[in-house]
Amino acid sequence: MYTANTMASAIEALGMSLPNSSAQAAISDDKMRDCFDAGAAVLNLIKLGIKPRDIMTREAFENAITVLIALGGSTNATLHIPAMAHAAGVDITLDDFERIGKRVPVLADLKPSGKYAMADLVRIGGTVPLMKMLLEGGLLHGDCMTVTGRTMRENLDKQDISYPAGQEIIRPLSNPLKKDSHLRVLYGNLAEGGAVAKISGKEGEQFTGKARVFNSEDDAMKAILAKQINPGDVIVIRLEGPKGGPGMREMLGPTSAIMGLGLGKTVALITDGRFSGGSHGFVVGHITPEAFCGGTIGILEEGDEIVIDAVNNRIDVNLPAEVIAARKAAWVQPAPRYTRGVLAKYAKLVSTASEGAVTDKGL
User: Fold this and answer.
1) C-beta of residue 6 within 8 angstroms of C-beta of residue 12
2) Which of 113, 181, 256, 276 is catalytic?
3) Which site in 16, 128, 267, 326 is 20 to 30 Å from 219, CA atoms measured?
4) Helix pair angle (94-101, 77-87), 10° resolution
5) Catalytic: 276?
6) Gap between the Cα atoms of 268 and 236, Å rounded
7) pTM of full prediction above 0.85
8) Would you say 235 and 267 are in contact if contact means Cβ atoms under 8 Å apart?
9) CB 148 within 8 A of CB 43
10) What is the per-residue pLDDT across 315-334, written as a single tens digit (0 to 9) for each?
């Protein structure tokens, strides 16, 4: 359940792709038929006069969030879903993920934190039976229009796919892997604008440690591979946010190296960048405000004590307010990495990670 599978499933739940199209082997007769069916669906939508904004409503985006939580999807969805919604004229924020996450359980035992792969879900019937379960449980809006020209409820009523008895990939609502969302939205003096963590529960729900500060992913990677990181450290990778990057590099390298060195349960990592859908462990990304814009992550020093609390959804540095204020007063914004061209324009226009890192906010 990496980012591609996460977003494919979310877009199906959004109503913008055909039923079960997100759960097909890439090279298969099913996918070939799906390509032809998609073309026919477009012609039908033109005939019916149904446009994307007729489908991409607030309720449809809530369906997308619900399904990606049930599947244990990637933190990148908290960037892509708000950005897609913004393009469609719908206001979806991190608070919507938090609100929906309180009532939607994680049902899928899928990698990277689980046991099975997306191909295993395809083998037992894909996403349709899961959506049926969620609809019957009152967790989906069944009246949303979809690209079939029918509502989600009508689509699901037409499908006779069900999971085989004894399968262990998708849990029933009565016995979830996690009773609420694995995507945790954290606030605190380290993330006044919000941050996002993927907490399955296997890595614990609280972590306190000493900051090890790096001003790029590359510098952090060198230190990790040189075995300069110790149990109890909180690796801080900053200046990798939307403006500071510019862009948001995904920290698959550092998080994979931490796991490979056997430090997954004893080391945390926080960043104003983002993560691959393949990342797992005690990791917090999308920290807003980012370091380049004067966020608290930008004034952290080696040894500062950082507290991550996924029970109370907090991320803080244990410093007196006056010390934080004094450091911020002395802070000088780093020189931008690009001063000309498209990346300079991007850095100038891009919004925060909490707003989907879109480039037309306020236009």
Assistant:
1) no
2) 276
3) 326
4) 120
5) yes
6) 9
7) yes
8) yes
9) no
10) 999 999 999 999 999 999 99
- What residues contact 186, with CB distance under 8 A and at least 6 apart? 194, 195, 196, 197, 284, 308, 309, 310, 313, 314, 315
Q: Which two tokens stand for residue 65?
A: 């969030």
Taking the domains of the chain in order of start, what are their residue ranges?
Answer: 3-158, 183-355
Options 3.50.30.80, 1.25.40.20, 1.10.10.60, 3.40.50.880; which CATH number does 183-355 get?
3.50.30.80
Task: Report residue 157: phi and psi, to 5°.
Answer: -65, -25
- Cα 21 to Cα 14: distance, rounded to the nearest angstrom: 12
- Cα separation, 76 vs 276, in Å, equals 7
Counting every residue written for the chain, the total comes to 363
Residues 14 and 56 sit within 8 Å (Cβ to Cβ): yes
pLDDT score at 269: 95
| Tens-place pLDDT, residues 216-272 | 999 999 999 999 999 999 999 999 999 999 999 999 899 999 989 999 889 999 999
pLDDT category at 314 given cuts 50, 70, 90 is very high
Tokens of 261: 């060195």
Which residues, 6 or more positions from 279, have their beta carbon under 8 angstroms from its beta carbon? 75, 112, 198, 250, 251, 252, 255, 256
CA dihedral 325, 270, 66, 63 (to 10 degrees): 70
Burial class (CB in 10 A: 0-12, 13-18, 19+), 262: exposed
Torsion, Cα of 351, 355, 358, 363 (10° steps): -70
